[in-house]
Design brief:
alpha/beta, 2 domains, eight-stranded mixed β-sheet, six-stranded parallel β-sheet, about 25% strand, 11 helices, globular, Rossmann fold, about 325 residues, Dihydrodipicolinate Reductase, domain 2
Length: about 325
């Protein structure tokens, strides 16, 4: 295998800019086909992005002999349907986050990967963005001494810009999304905490809905104890007033602190009273660095940038933080 030839299942809003064009701009990578249930939209996507094939049938894409890898960009409710099918058909899989509706489905996907000879990477793409690579660099160098605890606050109004706009707001339907906005963006924060601090020891959390009749969490408040001794506390609130909007993460060490946001481009490091600011610019197609790493992994040239087991851990932590298990 010298080139990764892709098919996209679910060429919607996420694939439009964040990921889709990156499959064509990455070396040793070609986008050969896209699938969407709405034929006109699938055809339009293919025409605008110069993709040679489009279809409304996912099986047609999965069994296309010219395609060796599938990007599953549908909502989580269909991940368990498409992922094992693609693996069984001999395709590698790049799977959107969260990897499924719940922990049980995520485990079944992990089991399918173990049974298969193919490869799977979960699209926790923030691992490869420059700002978070800088944070990891600071931590690895012990730039602020021994890490003590992390304080995270994601406070957003109902119409937050953090959530991609879609024709139908499926993210608020737990049968499709698994659990509202927290299940949509929470994986980014949880995955990075795991990426930064390693194995998790204990998780506890609580959640509430407003109004109470809603089936998804409005507020989630949780703590994580990592095996290396780092303590994490985080709160997510998706119904604050505009003036209360916050996107903040502060890592406290024995000699200073590191502060950043998940949707910003500045990393601030304070050590012994001296402040350093680092500004970064994300790529136009924000998933491109992760897609490049995935292509290298599929070609046997690099390690898996995010294995299925990591996606399972994130899913399990989501459920525990929301108090579901």
């Amino acid at each position: 295998m010298k080139t990764i030839t892709w098919g996209i299942i679910g060429c919607g809003d996420v694939a439009e800019v964040k990921s889709g064009p990156a499959f064509q701009k990455t070396a040793n990578s070609e986008l050969l086909g896209v699938m969407r249930r709405n034929g006109e939209k699938a055809k339009d996507f293919a025409k605008r992005h110069k993709v040679p094939n489009w279809t409304t049938n996912a099986d047609e894409l999965i069994h296309n002999s010219a395609i060796n890898s599938i990007y599953i960009a549908t909502p989580p409710s269909s991940h368990l349907t498409y992922t094992p099918k693609a693996l069984e058909a001999g395709k590698n899989v790049y799977l959107e986050k969260p990897m499924a509706l719940n922990t049980e489905e995520s485990q079944r996907i992990c089991d399918a990967v173990k049974r298969s000879s193919r490869k799977l990477t979960v699209a926790h793409y923030r691992r490869k963005l420059p700002a978070f690579k800088k944070v990891r660099e600071f931590l690895d160098a012990e730039a602020i001494g021994n890490i003590l605890h992390v304080d995270l606050r994601i406070l957003q109004p109902k119409n937050t810009d953090m959530i991609a706009k879609t024709d139908e707001n499926w993210r608020l339907d737990p049968k499709v999304s698994g659990g509202g906005y927290f299940y949509d963006i929470g994986p980014h924060q949880i995955d990075l905490m795991y990426h930064f601090f390693g194995e998790i020891d204990k998780v506890a959390g609580f959640s509430s809905s407003r109004p109470e009749k809603e089936l998804v969490e409005t507020v989630v408040n949780g703590i994580i104890a990592f095996k290396n001794g780092v303590q994490f506390r985080g709160i997510w609130n998706f119904d604050v007033a505009e003036e209360g909007q916050t996107d903040s993460c502060i890592i406290y060490g024995t000699e200073g602190s590191i502060e950043f946001s998940f949707y910003g481009d500045v990393v601030r490091c304070i050590k012994k009273g001296k402040e350093q600011l680092f500004n970064f610019k994300n790529p136009k197609h924000i998933q491109q660095p992760m897609i490049e790493a995935t292509v290298a992994y599929f070609l046997g040239e690099a390690q898996n940038p995010c294995p299925a087991e990591d996606g399972l851990l994130v899913m399990d932590t989501l459920e525990k933080l929301s108090g579901r298990v």
